Structure formats: C-alpha cells, structure tokens
Protein 1
Amino acid sequence: MDGTPKKAAEATKAPKASRQVMTAYRLEDGHVIYLAADGSWSEWIEEARIATTKEEADALTAAAKVATDANQIFETYLIDVTTEGRTWPVTMREVMRAQGPTIHPHFGKQAERGERVSAVANAAAGKRTERGERRENREG
C-alpha cells in the first residue's frame, strides 16, 4: 500500500459514465413521474430528460427543487438508466416503479405502455415508408 486512505484514492478516480433521470412522486395523486425533456413532468420514463454529466444532473436537481418548492412533487432523486434500445431503469426497484402497479400486463399502466410503444413503432414505420415512397417518386 502507498499509505493513502482507500476513500481518498477512490475519490481521485474518474467517475464512470452514467446516464441519470430525475424521478419524483406527484403530490396530487402519488404517481411516479419523471422530469421530461420539455421541462414538464411525465408518468413515462421514456420521455425523461437524460443527464450524462454532473452539470446536467445538477440542472435536473435544480428543476426538481423548483417543483418541490411549488408543492407539485415530493421525494425527488436521480436514478441510473440505460438507453440501449429505450430509456429504462437499471435497478429492479426503479423498474417496478416505472412499470406501475404490479398487476396483469393487460390492465392499467402496463397496458397503456404497450399501446404507447406500439403507436410509436407504427409511427416510425410510417415515416420510413413515407421516406421510401418519396425517394422512389423522386427517382421515378
């Protein structure tokens, strides 16, 4: 050992790259919500603004403080997410919060998420088709 305390050595290491979103509970009804990219609060984690730097995370924290002080939300904190395929929590606790009440997947918020994912996929497929058709029309 070089004589330096372990904590001091860990503090000098570069932090690992992470992606975080701000989560809270809505005071009105207690629903789990996320700070969205447009500054509003959404029940859908897929719409959350993602922080990749300390400065961005601090901005999310500041926005959450404003909403907390206005008595709109409570119990705010940052959570780690992955963005491989879609924005989704890393920990099981946060996955359960994002999914909504643990009921049958054909009912409640879980069913709504399936409908939203299908609508987004269909819209994306439609855009690809439109682009392809436009390209064909230009060439033909």
Protein 2
Amino acid sequence: MKRKIKVIMTDYSDHSLMKEKEPLFFHKDKEGYRAAEANLFNIYDQVRYQEIIGFGGAITQASAVNLMKMAKEDQEAVMKGYFDQEEGLGYSLCRTTINSCDFSTEFYSYDDVENDWELKNFSIAHDKQDVIPMMKKALSINKELKFFSSPWSPPGWMKTNGRMDKGRYLKKECRQVWADYFVKFIDAYEKEGIPLWGVTIQNETHAQMGWESCYYTGEDERIFAQDYLKPALNKAGLGDKKIFFWDHNKERVFDRALDVLSAAKAREALDGVAVHWYAGDHFGALEAFHQMYPEKLILGTESCVGTEKKADYDTGEKYAHDMIGNLNHWACGWVDWNMILDSEGGPDHWKEEQEKFKEKFEKNGCREEDLSESEKEFLLPCMKTGIWVGEAPVIMDCKSKEIKYSSSYYYIGHFSKYIRPGAVRIGSSIYTSSLEACAFENPDGWKVAVVLNPSDISRKLTLRYRDEIAETFLPAHSIATYLFQ
C-alpha cells in the first residue's frame, strides 16, 4: 500500500488559506530514474537536532483590550482560532509583559511607591482588568499552554533616569529588589492559576527607546542573572523557571553571549538566549551561538511588521522565512508579537505620544532648536520617517469591529498547528535556494515538512524520504505543510 502524504497549502492566488489539498503518494525511487534526480527535497529522519517547545504570540495589553471590545462570538472565534488544536492554530507558547510596554494603554508598573524595598505595595491588579482574563481564556482552551514574561522596564524609581521610558539603567542598589519583583510577579500569577514557564531578563537589552526600555551591558545581565535573579528564584522555590538573556536582535547575539556566559556561575543560571528579527536574518549568528553553547536554548521571542505591504502574502512570507531560518539554526520555538491590534495599530500609548507631538510640531511650526533633547532624540525621527503602525495576525476594525486575518495568521499556522511541542527537527536538503524548507518528527511519529516558495514562479518539488519519492509543485508565493507517517 502506498504511503499517503497529507498536503496543507496557503496560496493567495486561488484563495487557499491553510486548505487541505489532494494528497500525494510516495512511490519507489526507481533505479536510473533520472527525472527524480532533479527538484529533490530530501528528508533524513536518521539525523536529529533540537526539540521544539512551541509556537505562538504575545498577549499584550493591546491584544487583551481589543479582544474585550469584540462581540462575544468573535471573542470565542478568535481565541479558538489561536489556541484550539483541532479547529485553530494550536498555539502552545505565549509571551506576556512584566509592567507596561509600548503596546499598553498607559505607563504602569506593579509598584510605583518610591523606595518600596520590601515591595509591600506590589499588586497585579492592573493586569486583572484585561491581560489575565485573556490568559485564562487561552489556558481553558489549551491546558498545556506555556507562558513566559518579559519586562520592558523596571518601575521608574529603580532606574538611573527615574522613569520607565527613554532607556538608561537599572540602579545597582536596586538589583535585589528588582529580582524580588520577578519572584512577586511569578507568585502572583501562579495564585491566579497561571503558571509561568520562564522569563527574559529584559526586552531589547541593547536599546534605549522612547517607550518603556532599560539598557543592560553584558556585564549587567551576567551579574543580575547569576547573583540576583537566579538566587531569588531558587530561594522562592522557583528554580525550575527558565531564564533567557539578550531578548534582542540576532546581529550581536554571539558577542553578547561571550560576555554574559563568560562565567561558569552565569552559565548555570541561564537557560538560553532570546532573539528578535529587526536587524536582518543573521541565522549564522544562531549557528555560531549553538556551536559555542550547545546546551543552551535559542528562542525567537518577537517579530512584527508595519501595515504597508506589497501583496496579501507579504507579511506571511516574511514570517515564514524567519521561522524556517531560526528553526534550521537551532531555535526551539518562535513567538510573534501582538496577537490582536486594531486597524490603527493600537492601542499603543507611544504611538499616541508621537501623534500628539506631530500635531504640536505641525500646528506650531516648531523648529528643531525649540525642541527638548528628549524630543529631538525620541520623537523628531518619527516625524522624518513617518509614524510606524504595527500589524498583527488578527486586526479588529476600530469602527465596524469587523475581524480580519492577515497572511501571518495562516503562515504561522503552517508551523504551530502541525509541529507539536516535543517534536524534533530532522535532517533535510533541498535542490534550490528559491525554496526554503524545514522538517520535523512529532512525538507520535508523524513527519512534518514545511516548504515556502517566495519566488514569482511555480517550482517543481519532489519529496524524497528514504527510498521513496512523491512529485508535486509549489505555486508562486505559497507555503505548504506535508505530513506523513
């Protein structure tokens, strides 16, 4: 009996969105069969690489607020669409924020009382309004869902500039209370019935942004991880929580690792590195990191694009390219940014600040010499390049409340729905750089191969597994997931 291959395809040219196509069937790879020497995508399950933890997105306050604005039936559809394994994308790994981020409705922390060294005023009441209900709903759909959390900034009183935005540093004398803050956060969430799998030390440790941000040198991260955060978690009985450093772009990840992991104590404290995509591919940097530190996890923790795109498939292609590149270079998972935004790219309190500044700048005819240093550094560049409006896989129209799904939703689904937690990446090779591909074996033994065709023409493809082949083609600007036992 011929081995069947299930085919799932997204092809905007015929409006196929994660649509199951006619199956393929393997047949014997005949001796001397020259046609089968070309167009090969080889799958080698004898070769095994990293284990996959999961895929998903970020439950930001913006996502939660937008969800609450939807009609009840739309809320159910969106959450099922993201988290249900059978009817949706089967998201298995999600990121949340510790304190506010740019995609919050305002600046907030869980303890704004100056010099509250014992954190007597610590409270997650703010999150109980929107973020926590969304997380609980997600958990009710997928009880195995893993959450990890990232701070964009400590409370302003813990920082050298006295505020959550515009970067600068964590005060050295606040390292212990900030580590204790992590413990309080994890404990408070677990009392809400939401277990946390891990944390990152700081979102984008190498960036000083106009919104919530905090700069860490490699030495800062190393000292905080090994001498404060890990001991605090251990003392609280939370030593099993994963700790990731960097949480920033890939172009400097190897150099940061050499610095942060230069001490044995830090290597014991840290479980891996978290990476974003905003500075280009740099997949070789992940490979270098793995070769130097093979025991450490690599986790893709944020990706996002603006609303401008050349075609419907554009966003999805960018996502799939990054996912395949990361996974083929040892990433154990991949997480998108905001899960839900409105049609104006919000709510985003940093964007609102930009818009207020733009109105002031244009109405009053402000000259650069009239601006404060902060306005010149963090707001004036936005006027020159234009206010950036982010996109999410799910967009809610501000007026009509209509729900739209961008291509990233479906392209992510080609991975998240079919490559399950516990899967192992297996070996593969493909005949042309015009196609991008990766392959996995799920815990139940099913093989999963994802192939992206970002080119303008249809490409022939011959799947080859051991001594069997199956011939097909992949339309221009399409993605397919192939499953077989």
Protein 3
Amino acid sequence: MNRNQRWIILAAMTLVFAAGCGGTKVLKEPQPMITTQPLAAASDQRVIATLDWVIVRDGPGTWAKNADWDEYLLRISNPSDQPIQVTSMTVIDSLNTRVEPQPGRKQLVKGSKQSARRYKKSGIKVKAGRGAGTMLVAGAAVTAVGYGAAAVSVVGAGYGTAAGGAGAAAGGLLLLGPALAVGGIVRGVRNSAVNNQIEQRQKILPLEVPASGEIALDVFFPLAPSPGAVELAYSDTSGEHIIVIDTSAALNGLHIDAQHE
C-alpha cells in the first residue's frame, strides 16, 4: 500500500467516524433533571396555565444530543365544572415573530434554520442552548453532572478486514463510496429514532381538559430566541379565549449568542 492509498483509507474511515459521532441522536438515558418551581404561569377566570420547563439543546432533561429545537413542558388546569378544549399553542420570540409547533424532526430543524436566518438579518447570532442559565435559576433546576451516550462501533466493525487486505490496497479509491454510504445509513437510522421519540412525546392539539382536571402538554417548537410569551388558545361553552404566559424574565437571552446578551 503506498502513501496516497493510506491517506485515502484514513480519509474514508474519518468520514464514517464523523458520521457516527456528529448530528442528533437519542441518548441511552435522558439527562436527569429536577425542578423545584415552574418557570412561569398565567391564569384567568377559567384556566391556569403553567410552564414547568423548556428542554433545550444538551440542557437539563434532554434525551437527544445536539437537538436543534425546543421542547415546552406545560400543565393546563381547569378548575371549572365544565370541560374546556386547548386548541393551539404559539411561542412569540424576541423579534415578535409567532413560532408555531412542528410535528417532526425535519420540520423542526428547518424552522430553526429559518429563525437563525431571520435573526442574522437583525445582526443577532443564534446559538442553540446558549443563555439557558436564566432558566436554570428561574426553575431552580438541579441536574446530575454528566450523562452517558451510546458508543458507535462503525469503524471497528466496518474496517477491521477491509483495510488490512490486499484488495483494500488495490482498490483504495473505491472506499470513499462505501464510507459515505455507511455514514448516510448511520445518520438515517439516528434521525429516524429521534423523529420517533418526538412523535411519541408530542401532544397534538386540540386536547380536552376535563372539568376540575389537569393535563400535561409536551410540545416541540423550532428555536424561538429569548421568547417573550407563550400563547394558548382554548374554547369552552362561552366561546374562544386566549391566555398568555409571560416568559420574558425566565427565558431572557435563550439561544442568543453571548455577545448579544
């Protein structure tokens, strides 16, 4: 095997290793999280809406590495003697843009990229997960240090024999194709696993809240930097209503790069 062929094989193996280590993937165990108080809440004559937490990229409660979206965890209480129906939920970011929930990984990532471009035009850099310290204080969150992630053994399994034989030396140029293919398969499997988790966790509106009852909402949004409010629409026998949770303090600076905080 000559020097050029060795470099080609090394490059191919690096591609596979990068594919296995990068991107979004489901963790073996979610990062532990305990919150001692909600981030924010709002109420009217009919409903109490509480924002317990927002799971952000690699933050407390996360179950996916390198997530480019936010997961809002809420409770909706209905103390009245009549059922209500929560019909929609919207997050309003610091540019006063209304951000709607999305059903899957692909739509969430696309929406987050659109948010980043929108903020870039205003001279603000968006960085997923940055500025979450304010939320940690507001929710008095306690997290365990560190968490485990599954190791990937694509390189060892795929190249133990291929790189050592005469066929590999003679056909080194062909290894780039299989390397890229394996990388694509790894990403595809991981993306599918992440999307399945999102679909299983997410509550799809509308949802009914029974009389004197409470429901938990788990809703996924593209990145909404430094959001000022969460808006919930609901209906009962008297018509349509809106309740707004002020998040300007608890989520101040979220996803905004440090130089712009």
Protein 4
Amino acid sequence: MNRNLSYLLLLLLVITFLIGSVVYQKQHKDISLPGTNKQYYKIVPLTIPDTLSFAGESVPLDIFYVREALGRELSVNTYWHSSTLLLIKRAHRWLPMIDAILANQGIPPDFRYMPLVESGLQNVTSPSHAVGFWQLLKPTAKEYGLQVNREVDERYNVEKSTRAACRYLKKSYKKFGNWTLVVASYNAGQKRIFRFMNQQKANSFYDLLVSDETSRYIYRMLALKMIFENPEHYGFYINPSQEYPVIPTHNIVVKGAVKDWADFAHAHGISYKLLKYFNPWLRKTYLKNSHRKTYQIKIPTAPFNMTAEKLKE
C-alpha cells in the first residue's frame, strides 16, 4: 500500500513538472532573444562564402588553409561576443571620421578595419611602445609627420595618426603593388616581408609562410569586414540608441603656453577629464610650447549624456 502511494505521488510530481514546464514556456516565449539565427540556441560552425575580396583583391578561398584560417577568425570574432559588441558600438563614433580620411587619401575603404584589429579603436600602448589607434612606433610617427615629445604625442590624435598611417600605407603600396602585402608589412615590417618573399620565392601573401600573428592579421580584418557588413547574420542586434554617438566639438586655437590644462578646461566649461578625452595627445598637465606651435584643442559642443538618437535630432 505504501509503495503504491509512493508511486502515485511520484507520478503526480512528474505530471506537475511537465505541465509547469509547458506553461512557463508559453508565458516566456515573447521575451526570447531577437531574431531567428541558430547561433542564439546552438554553437554552430560558420559558413565561409564562395567569394570574398579585400581592397578589390580576391581572397583565394579555394585554398584549404585560407578557408580554415578565415573560419578560425570568423568564429573567434563572432563568439567573442563582448569584444565584437563593443567594437560595433565604438565604430559608430570613430569610423565616419576614419572613412572620410581614407577616402581623401586614396586608401581602400577596407582599411577601416585595420585600427579595429590594431587597437580595438582605443588609444592603447603596446608592450613594444606602439601607441594609439594605429599603433605607431615613435620613429615611424616622426617619419610620417607626427609630433612626439614629452608634452605632445600626436599618435594619440586619431585624425592626425590616421593621416600618418595613410601616408605609410601609400608608400608601402608603391613598394609592393598589392594591398594584402601592405597589410602584412604593416604588422611584420616591410623588410621582413620582402625577405620572406625572396627566401620563399613567392609574390602573394597567401603563399607566404609567416608568423602566426602576421598570418592571422589579414584574416581578422576579413572576419570583421564580414561581421560589420551584416551584423545581424552573426547574431549582433544593436539598437541605434545603444551605439556610441559622435559628439560634436569645436576647436580652440592655442599658440602659446598653457600653465595648467585643468584651469583651461574649467575656463571653457568642462572638466579636465573631458579635455583629456577629446585631446589625449596632451601628455602633461601643462604646455610650455617653447617653439610657439599652433594647436587645435577640441572642446565638446553638445551635452555629453545624450544618446546617438538624441544627437541626430
């Protein structure tokens, strides 16, 4: 009798659980993640397209190791959700300006993905002391027209460093005559790529045996290109209000010395922190400016707490 009662109670518990599960699913079906992409529910291998190009140059996807290398970076950048999500949000603020400079300088638009790979669109410093969005070393920066000293480091100036990077890329293209090799040389150095080409008797990047870092570099750019051109296909759904807006600024011309940048900031109605955000190339709390150079100091014009949608109104 006790055994039968136990079986009956167990059966009732199972039935209650099943009914509760069905009711729960019906009640919560409307708050599921947006879209119908399988990646929301399964970790699936990503499809490699039949054709792909970079800067107008065809990617030889018929070569097995090219497809596999692209697949690796596409998987990493798709499933590393937090990193790619932040890149997409930052890109709304920075890529319009970078795109305009690339177009003005005659650099293919696909190079917009280079600073994403280099720095994640952040003014970071590498262990080898490469600096800024484009990760320029001090000698290279000076060679291509940037000022780098204790008070001013224009590698942190996104506009000026982008123009300097363009000058480097154009000079590199004159040597290689191929944009993919230009990308490889930006990572590994022109001399090293030329040495590899001579040693291995190869004229295409895709035929070169290079370091893993250099090998992955172009594929990271290609993967980001694919994701950015069709983010929802890879599971990234971002409302325009969640993108980082472009904040309008105006310039204040400085031709002499500035005793204290904090006082300067407060005199123009902002904090020192905001002054540094828009002018990270100012490396000291003062500017002696002994050579009386002219500098353009960016001051934000709009309220700083507004969303991208509000700023468009």
